[in-house]
Protein 1
Amino acid sequence: MAPKNKNPNGENVVPEVQQKKTQALILKSSDGEEFSISKSAAGLSVAIKNMMEDDCAGGVIPLPLVDGGTLARVITYLNKHAEDGASDEDKRKFDEEFLSGMEVDVLCDVALAGNYLDIRGLFHDVCQRIVNGMKNKSVEWVRKTFRIESDFTAEEEEQIKKEYAWAWEGVDSDAD
Amino acid sequence: MVEMGEASESGSRTLTSSMVRSGSFCEEENFHRQASFGGGGSRNTSPLGRMGSRNTSPSRQKVIKTKPRGLDEETVATFTKYVQPDIHMEDNIWAMLPEDLLNEILARVPPFMIFRLRSVCKRWNSILQDNSFLKFHSQVPSHGPCLLTYWKNSQTPQCSVFSLPLKQWFRIPCTFLPQWAFWLVGSSGGLVCFSGLDGLTFKTLVCNPLTQTWRTLPSLHYNQQRQLIMVVDRKDRSFKVIATSDIYGDKSLPTEVYDSKVDKWSLHKHACCKSLLLENGILRLKIVFGNSFTTWFNDVPTGHRAVGTHTSKVPPFSVGWIFSSRDPETPVSSRKNWPL
């Protein structure tokens, strides 16, 4: 039930959202897509919870900073974490799988959404995931993956490297 | 394989080891000056947020406390200003990232990686050396435990640190240290404590091997070789060193406690500490007060480099659990104080 990426027309594939017996909310993404989500799941977002407390029962909550693809992912996460009977272990496994397939730029989008919606667990996990991907990687790998161009001169770069030579030990080769 | 354990008892060996946390290797500023660090109660996730950069979460701005249907114009206008660069990342995604997200991500980078990542680009280089970033970095939960060994041969003293999270050794030269005869006492919160003999005076030296900074503590009231234990309080950004007689030593000497916040040794009723780091990472701690009673604490998880502050009660010590590396999410408030 994981949400898919955008289709070739640029439209997001809407995840199948369970219509629970509990009251549902509609979340509206920046590109106008609407998603139904149970209140219990939505309440895991502190930002949405605050909006619900401000009496918007049954309303549509516009989220002008989150695009549909990202929102679909966030909703998948919230649904799992609000699931009755899901143990912490289940959730942990889910989180791992959920994040493992994402590219860095997707992770960044989800992190931004997690921050915006104030879902601390998701935000932390995504940031940690991004960092884990950088471990033991070369500087060149980091630049390539995050599409950063070095603005150092060769001499400046060499100087930093020389100063902390120990920090360059054990770096994976770029071929990996 | 490195010898592991009994870190604080390994006085005369050249190769000794102890468990450290890599959590706050970068508390350089703290090192020179125990500036009081506020931040209590701040829910802001980024130091830059406090410095006036925008905060992307509406719940913290309380902007969203508006009616659900149709945000008011001002709010929408505020949001749309952010929308384009933040959401649609283009070629250089990291150049487009909001500063506070980049900070959040870099704050989770293990301290060892900070130095390498400085060479990525000028922006990263400047963030990774920024004082408020480094403070923020030291507040983020554990980067996991490390095994520290100290090796001194005739030429180059060096610390070898094995980072458990990175599963990697780093050989950090300690040539910046003075040329005394000294031995490893222990480490906590990224700081490493040595005991040394400069001529006829026992010295206590605390250093940060990553930033290559060090300082000596004032002289003990009693110039004796003592059992030393160092504890760092990351929340408080301070450290304490406790000097006691070991169980075979002169029990008539009072216990001395150094507090980095006042930069002084204070004298306390005699107590004697002995800590053992067991094979499974369990710290066993023994506290003896006078001749009256002895207490053993077992099952102190790694990272709980114990022995804390004195209280006004008698007996005057409590054992403070400083932090847990086993569960990096353990909130600070769960630290325990067990008065003896």
Protein 2
Amino acid sequence: MILSGERPILEAVALTKHFAGRRRLFGRPAAVRAVDGVSLRVRRGETLALVGESGSGKSTLGRLMLDLMPPTAGDVLYAGRNVGALPAAERRALRRELGIVFQDPFASLNPRMSVADIVGEPIWLQGDLSRADRRAEASALLRRVGLRPEHGDRYPHEFSGGQRQRIGIARALASRPKLLLGDEPVSALDVSVQAQVVNLLEDLKAEFGLTLLVVAHGLGVIRHMSDRVAVMYLGQIVELAPVDALFDDPLHPYAQALLASAPNPSPRARKARVLLEGDIPSATRPPPGCRFHTRCPHVRPVCRELQPALEEVAGGGLAAGGRAVACHFWAELAGAGAGARAALPSPAFARRLALFEARSKAAAPAEPAPSRGPAP
Amino acid sequence: MTDVALPARAVPRRPRSRGLAAFLRNRAAVAGAVVVALFVAVAVLAPLIAPYDPLKTNFLLIRKAPSAAHWFGTDDLGRDILSRLVFGARASLLAGCISVAIALGIGVPVGLVSGYFGRWIDAVLSRVVEALLSCPFLVLAIALGAFLGPSLGNAMIAIGLSAMPIFARLTRGQVLAVKAEDYIEGARAIGLPDRWIILRYVLPNALAPIVVQATLAIAGAIIAEASLSFLGLGQQPPAPSWGSMLNTAKNFLDAAPWMSISPGAAIFAAVLGFNLLGDGLRDALDPKEG
């Protein structure tokens, strides 16, 4: 599917973003280290997900990679060219190739512009189409995302959240991008609508040959739509792996805890929980050594001293779909966390469960067992 | 998130209608609008409404109390006060509207540039605006009016310049709020030029409070014009204005109180009308649509 030798479409090299923090009375203001030395390659045609809890820097990393904010240090390479070093005109042209779909469909559309204008504006910006052609193209885009062309005369507030997100997607597509950043594209939507928008994104990806970079915290969405996942913690990537490998056997203790925190509807498949204690530490003063050591259930003395590097652990090199993890003891911990099945809470519970299963089988013998499809 | 997908035809076409309905439900606001409309009509139709020539003196009718022939009485030169009030409405409304237009014309662009670009442009413009704001509005207007010389036109310029910093600061604050919205980042993300973003994205979304402030500022400008005219810095005699009528009337407060009561009441009514209108607009435009 993806040639290993191909150049990545987008690449972050030791990317760092510090935000100026609150000024103190004495001394220098503490910087918030939102993203701290992240290197990441996005392959052409893949869907790469960035996950992590709030404050992990995943949104900031996405924005940095789209040149929406200047990095404090490090570089972004688009198709091998250093974005920060491009002349202004080329940089603006590049903006068209990188689209963004925002999280909140209620804040991401200009309330004073009609939908036709919202979708038509990026086309107008390209500047090579007549007015009538622009309208036709905007209508075609609206139809493509599942809206009616006559919706173009209305204003954003007349639409529901899901419809607005479709408008946002149509606008993002209008500049004919090569890569689309979805900044939690469905997390503000109703669950019933999430699946529709995810499916729409997948269809469009195939149709327009897009590369998707998805920032998300909904693990179901990620499992369904992404090829690879980068797990972030306190501004750094702690694990990078193909999606199935990560979900089946997370290596980093944080990834294990993150996956274990997702509710599992089947009591038989429920896994042992690694409970994380405390909050994510402040990004102004990240802990020394491994950043996760303050909350890691497997912490050892060396973790407090030495920061583990993101090292390749399997699969013949990162470029060939291998995985990488930043943990000193990943080899010993593998399978110890989220992989292990939890014992059923009590014998009484097991009896009740068996009874329930027998009953439901008897009640509907003809019906096939509900297939566990991809969660929305 | 209570938004629901309505069937296509059930939705009103324009967003403006909702604000209008809210405005019409507010009785005080409608009353204000009616008063303002009335004054505008009087000012426009002054020659048709005024029973006498406002400049015609009559030494047989000096300081006559209100009567059937002269409803509001006559002034110290025997001129009909009602006619002078009617023509004075022109000066007052004109001064109110033009000086606010001047204030908007300078203040809003200053606020837009200052808020949108930030950094040193913002620092410089904000300091200038703050320096102007540190002077009380009326004191500044009088000082500028005295500096420019007494005439209605100069009074308008003086009032406009004095009201400008309020608009600059209000606009800047609005721009800062709007600038944080996702759609501004989205507009930058697709590479739209700054000028376009300011005119199509920032200004329309920052406008509502500015419109409200402008209505309220007209009321303030009417008072300021009256004050300047009262001090002899605005409308020059013999042309009538409410402020200059009060100026003359103050010498006859005991002998001819009607000379001061009617222009004072006119100022009061016009200012109240604009204030009610402005408050109503604020309430109607405030709830975020959508």
Protein 3
Amino acid sequence: MDLLTLLLILDSTIRLATPLLLACLAGLYSERAGIFDIGLEGKMLAAAFFSGAVAYTTGSAWLGLLAGIGASLVLSAVHGIASITFRGNQLISGVAINFLAAGLTVVIAQSWFKQGGRTPQLVGDARFEPITLPFADAVKDIPVFGVVYNELISGHTSIVYIALLLVPLTWILLYRTRFGLRLRAVGENPASVDTAGISVVRLRYIAVLICGVLCGLAGAYLATALQAGFVKDMSAGRGFIALAALIFAKWRPWQALFACLLFGFLQAMALRPDVLEQYLGFKVNAQLLDALPYILTVVILAGFVGKAIPPKAGGEPYVKER
Amino acid sequence: MTTAAPAIELVGISKAFGSVQANKDISIRVMPGTIHGIIGENGAGKSTLMSILYGFYKADAGEVFIGGKKTAIPDSQAAIDAGIGMVFQHFKLVDNFTVLENVVLGAEEGFMLGTSISKARRVLKSLSEDYGLNVEPDAKIEDIGVGMQQRVEILKALYRQADILILDEPTGTLTPAEADQLFRILDRLKNEGKTIILITHKLREIMDVTDTVSVMRAGEMTATVKTAEVTPAELAELMVGRKVRLTVAKKDISVGEKILEVKDLSVKDINGVERLKGASFDVRAGEILGIAGVAGNGQSELLEALGGYQKATGSVTYKGAAMDLSGLVSNGQDRRSNGIAHVPEDRQSEGLIMEFMAWENAVFGYHLDPEFRKGWLTDNAAMKTDAAGKMERFDVRPPDPLLKAKSFSGGNQQKIVLAREFERSPDLLLIGQPTRGVDIGAIEFIHQSIVELRDQGKAILLVSVELDEILALSDRIAVMFDGRIMGERRPSETDESELGLMMAGMTKDVA
Amino acid sequence: MNELPRWAEIILVPLISLLLAAVLSALVILAIGENPISALQLMVQGALGSTYGWGYTLYYATNFIFTGLAVAIAFHARLFNIGGEGQATLGGLGVALVCVYIPWPHWSLALIGAMVGAAVLGAAWAAIPAFLQARRGSHIVITTIMFNFIAAALLNYLLIGLLKPKGSMEPATAKFAESTHLPSFQDMFSTADNVLFRGAPANVTFFVATLACILVWLLIWHTRLGYEIRSFGHSDSAAKYAGISPTKIIMITMMISGALAGLMAINNVMGEAERLILGSVEGAGFIGIAVALMGRSHPFGIFIAAILFGFLYQGGAELALWTSIPRELIVVIQALVILFTGALDNMVRMPLQKLFSLFKRTPVSEV
């Protein structure tokens, strides 16, 4: 395979992996705290719409991003109220949030823009533009390194770099700070946190809200960076692939990065069936590539390749025992 | 020493859960540098009292004085601040954390963990040396034994500079050797000036380690005495209380053939810990074999294994044929169809389905019977009629088969279970805690029913933590301790204090 | 602790939840500058004002009855089958295989054959997650979600490959033979001079769905299996005591659930489209969750809730046609119903419990 084709595919891998990574990290915070979240998809979708809409209206991608995060946070709060305050079923709440987002985004989009449930095309500052990293131009003629730096590493939007930075940041937060220690503890055994004199409810709300912020980033990326505007159902199952990646990564940040890159790569390959056929010598079915993340996740869940053990207290509302 | 202010003083503590008065006007004083025991039967209110002291529950009334100062304890943080540490019966540890992480959790210094962890490592080292608390700081909780886990809990409290340490049933899951080690640690803590409250229902522990002891019964504090001035027998009496001596009229019938023969029956729990350790006994037709013992000494596992839903090893012969001990679900059905009835210890989580109506519960376990079938369908009408009859005969109040199980009182719930199991006229009845949480009125009726079944020549295995119940009903009594049968006695040849000592594992007769 | 009276449990709680969902939906309609009252009138007129409207309402309701029953039976065993969508997709495949490859002499025989095909494939698709749950402890919610996507990919693969007739560009099977066409309501109820249900897709499957309600009701409350399913759902420890096998219950319940979801395909694939196309389930698998929650997992409640959702779907289509309110408003209402009847159940229930305990004496049977 020539370097340029490879770089093109890897470049598109990074772009496609970014929303997965953000959503996956979002889920990581929530689920590590013991709150299952199958509503990543919905939060992402809501964020995508509101960021697209506000970016279009104000002409500022950054304001759009804020709006997207705000929308996602509202849905996070709903999830928190249902599953923490009222001790409802976390899974059902997640399902409801997905539908709420799927419906509301189109209804509002239609009312605001009357373009069949989409926002108008975003142009100029309403979109996140690729950033050229320092020296990218200067080194582009150096063989291999220069090309890789220029083509692959440089030239992404700021959200891509934010997402990548969030991986080590999450790792540090989770394993090297007081907050991370408590977060992990509350997802494993909330009673340990409670008897240590720390509020379980507060900790879980914080986790759910962080999840909201990250889903907001993921959604905003879809509408204002990956594409130029919101279209109906544009999250297209990414929230669930992120969930799959989270399980695949066994709820750990670095592994989440690799899982998302893998799933992003599969998506990138599905867009270039010609390349695969050319190099593998046989036709790889695009549907197989689509389904592969899910199949891999089921295999992992089934415990055939290492067991994916979710946080022990996940899905269970905390009630003081009598 | 005696002139100092008490380390803890509770005055007039009361706490009710719904209609259940868990603590009634309780007052105690514990002097600093002593080990104070609180002893009582299950449900006497010991744990509730300590949970109030640790800020886990809010008392309805009463005051707490720490070191002579009135202290409000609205939550656990306040208790920790007041220098109270608690080791719960079920540890509050995070299994996939290291020892250090568990110790630091909630007592971190600063946002980054690094300094907290290294400080904890230092402190832990010196604490370990001071008190002989031998732990591996970097081991994960899930990889270490129960004894070490408990020491981690103690370290957690000491790391928070607790002066008062409460331990709730600390030896429940420990081996005797581990328990001894724990007591040595407690002794050293005491000598360092710490105050320790030890909650237990084991007489031997009280006698061995405490300086003073309070006895709780049915939510009330019945006595506080110096341990040195009391005998185990007296304590046993205080604990159980001189209830109205139960007498049940029993016919004099001759004992028949061996119905159940148990040899070397052993059960391991899911963690591989042996809970039942080679129990052997037999039960004959027309007799009640009572198994006495403090809860958690293997009786539950015994019943579950015989009831067919717990895997066991050893051999059990029922009416001459070997019993399947695989614990596969088909066992339960086989047992029932062969005339073995089982009234489980816990009617709320096993014997009944609380959301089911009485008539549905009245066939639970026997729902496959042909008499309740009409072609492919169940004969709900027949079930309801059947249930109504059973409820009538067993005096279930109200006798309404359409009420959900959860809306009956404890005694009436139990009568539904008894009616279901007794009316099959089983050859062998396994019955656990027949009167736990049952109102006084129903106790007599339940006892009568059990004895009637025995008078019909049936074999009965009775497990109870109520000594007087065992004494009143049994033809023979076997005492269980630590998964083993300590010995057998005839009720006429023994009394509560001897049985109490055996239950505490103090004597072991050589059979 | 303090339980609600039966009527409040069955009628009041769902009604309040529905009311909350309706009020919020009305606010949404107001917010986008339309009139909720006239929107409701339009929906009633469009969905219930003619046999044509009813024909659509009942067509949608038929789908939702099947998927609602599927979710409900799993709920009875305390299993959350979120995979109705995938199971219905596979059910469609079963119908298509039976209808395309077997020459049927009469629609009634074809119906039976298609039902078998749909049920078997639907059940098989549910059986894998069920097995993984029962034996490997894999969370059934996650696996059934994954299986929805895998089903979609599988169908996509088959429809652009093996199942597509030669020369066709469309990802769909060939049209089913005339002899497999199910009688529509128009065929059944029209007279020579009075055509009813003209052009509406409701068909004989509606009666199959109604029958399914009755059968599921019998299964749950009048068979030994149903008794065991409910026992396991309420308390697995008690079920163990009674000699009920968890593995057996999980497997059988999920397979029945999957079969019911699969059976939906005789309505939409065989009854309406008369060929298998991509995405034919159209989210009905998920609506089943809302229907089951609202119907309190009781087949009769599900029947009512399914018709309500059928009304919403048809009414929503009419709204989209005549106003600027898009069809997706229905998705919003559906989400709110799930939210209030499912996740925020305690929010509705807790104040009610307080209210009722004020008026109630101490509970019966304090002996």
Protein 4
Amino acid sequence: MRNSIISWKYFLAAYLIAVPAMSETTINIAGWGAKSGPLRSFGVNSQAIIDAAITRVNENGGVTLEDGTKAMMAVEYYDSGCNAEQGIAVARKVASETNALIGIGPTCSGVAAASFGVFQKKVDDASDTGLQMALLTDTAVRNGLAKISQWTFRNTPNEPDMYDKLFAWVAENRPEIKTIYGGTETDQGHSAGTYSKVIVQAAVRHGFEWVNGPIEGVNGTIVEGFKNVLSSSSNWLMADTNFSVQARAFKKSGADMFIVSSHPFTTCGFLKELYRQKGMPKMLVGLTSSSSAETMKGCSKQVEGMIIPTSFAPITDAAKEVAALAEANGGAADLHSAAAWENVMIIKQVIESVGITGDPANLQDERRKIRDGLEALETTEGLLGTVSRVQDEGEALKPYVFVQAQSGNWEVIHDPR
Amino acid sequence: MEYYFGILQTLGFHVLLGYSAYILLLTGQLSLAQVGFFAIGAYASGILTVLFEWHIFPALFIGAIAAGCMAFMVGFPALRIKGLMLVIATIAFSEIVRLIFFNLRWRFEINGLEVGPDGAQGFREIRYFAANGWEIYEIVWLIWTMVAVATILLWWLDQIKAGAILRAIGSDELAAESSGINVTSVKIVAMACGGVIAGLSGGLYAHSTTYVDHNTFTVLLATFAVSYPLVGGLKSVFGTLAAVIFIQGILIEGLRFLGDYRTILFGALIILVMNFKPKGIVDENFVKGISEYLRLNKKLIK
Amino acid sequence: MVITSVDVIQSIIDGILYGSIYALIGVGFTLIFGAMQKLNMAYAASSIAGAYCGLGISAVLSLNLLVTFFLGPLVGGLIGILVYLVCFRFIPSREHLGSLMASIGALFLIDEIIVHETDGSPLNFPELGIFSEAYFLVGEFGFRGDLIFVLIVSLLAMTSIILMLYRTKYGLAARAVSQQMNAAILCGINPHKVNASTFFLAGVLGGLAGCLAAAAVGVISPLLILPLTIKGLIATVIGGLGSIKGAIIAGLLLGGFESLFLLVRGVNERDIYVFLLLFLFLVFKPNGMFGSIIDRD
């Protein structure tokens, strides 16, 4: 018995000598997203990339703590489905039952809208009993969510900016395109919100005309007249399967450019019907979320030529590497999941700049430190270049490129960086 | 700790939702309308606390009453039909309610912030509890007081004639009718009671999640509502309670460590339970076993 | 946009043609309900699962993708037998709610297995060869070739099922088990065997329906399951429980109304009107279009 204790101590001593600056603490972070239900691919992709990023950090020696020692990082990934109750349950579990310093997630904007609400709205408001742990979202992209709580941050693409630049570019390079028409899936907050409040306004701002005469109240300002945008368009729902009426309306409109703002399943269903009715326009513009592998799996032939602005494409060395690592981990890198890589790197950077001990006894203080550190960031290093932070809103302004569907792949057609 | 309190909240409103389906199942009617009443309660009480800045208690009360009135009004036409027809008619009702809230946009500024239901963007900022400094255990206490009251009432129902009448209709409607029971009005009353319970549950749900949107109130949740009493068994109100703990507590939360495989196991375990306990977990044998065990204990004490 | 009468008629045509998919699913529900007086909630899920398996097998063995349309029904039939075994065979037949709940469990199970295997992302589904490109123009009105094919298939399915029920020994046995189980057993009929055959038959039909639905949409996704379950049930109930003819007519009507309300009222209100109509129909005609007067639980 005695012997074994001694040998154990020797072993530990030898280990400590061999890795002198290695701290025994582990820096834990948590991730969650949809790993069940129809949006499972999002959770699978995010998890694959978070795992890859953590492995990379640890291979390079881990993260530097306050006292100068290095610590390994570890992540636990949870399935919160696309379900508000489960998203809240996981957020509570992570905040109160684990010593994770920060969370990455969730997938669905609806879950984000619900679970951000259980966080403390304003820091230092003692009367507010909400959760106090920072969250850095990779996927949920609906406009303006991070404002809900001062503890929630996002590293998601800024759609108003991207679509503004997209239509400026189209106006310059495709002068023959004059009129537009479009539709969205109205029961999806992100698709419908981006379409009616951002995309159409951006198009109008850059001189494109709605095909049946201008929509009342839409003058190019974000959000302005969005209800009329929806009622002037031909829309569908997320689980719809029959698009003949909508496709006919698109075809009848005869516009030069069609805007299709929906997720891959209905984007494909709709485009197949449009193709069948021989109503393909001169130009197609899609929603950021559709620039993914799912769309290509579903309808590479019909989506041909669609242009989408995206904050991720494997065009830099770093981005290519992440795409390869994701694939090796059984996922795919797209604009949503690639942000998870950046998030892990941002977290590492913040931990090193604010100084963390990793001691569970200081958990609450250190969570607060990380939050303040995130808020103070002005820029972060993204896979496509420098990302600026919109500090008071907790949002990001990410570099982007325009991609186009060309024979089964998303090819970069314009790179404004 | 916060996490376990959070789970207790979830269990709480699912138990109430299950009860609202249970009371109608006693009369032999499978209704998927409960989720519609749940949604009415959620939106109504949420609107009252957020847009009209009411206190939570009157808001919950009005939400429950609104849902109950709706149940009463729908019960009149709907409960003339039964069986599979009723299942479809109640799906239609729930979907109509869901789609009305999907189209509902009613927002104005309160304290410099535009709030209210916003169609597909959902209804955010139902933060009465957090904004008024309620600790999480106080919320749990509120929810479980409601659950306890509902449980006792439903248990008491089985001890008096009313419960016997409900079960009589459930086991043989024709016989019940010929012994002078006005079957349709009893069913409508059961429906209204179920509506009140579901509405209350919805109000509690909206306030503890702080956000609702139409995607919450789908046929899927309606299916869960009837699943609790069916899996738990109709013999006793405690069956529903046990089933909620089994489904929400063990299958959904407890098996989280299984990751992705948890949701697959979920369906398989329900099939398994129904094969071995087609009358539900808390069936006659179970009730008999428990009461014998208690009697045995009493004897031992003596 | 101005809605002309041409638009209205065209949208009704589109909808009725699409309704043939609802009709086909409705026939399957009806077949099982007619045989056992029980509801198999997992039916649409196993139909889509059949189509998935067909697609998967032909992709793995790199067969011609049209083989999917034969493999899908076959696997659908096998899944049908499996669902019968786990949800109906061993649960006492008087426990209606028990087997109903078990089949809901099977619905969740099948759905999640599909999600797990495909990560939930939509997959391209092979089109129906020459039918998919066919688009007939009659005057101002267009007709989708593939949906006309689906309609013909559902009518053929209806005819062959009715022939099978009234002209074969299996049909005699199935009807006997459905009407008087004990008497049927006394005549030497094995009711489990007969019921399993009915589930196989319905499963084959479902697998075919799943393949045709996926081919008509062009993509297959677990998102197809819930709408098809609800629409199939609606067709079954409006048609009058147990009436195959009724299920087909109801499915077509459902499609037509959906499409009409979509055109006139827009997508946000479409389903409100469809469900309102459904609710009123059930209240005023609780036995459906072709239902018998006896009320069933």
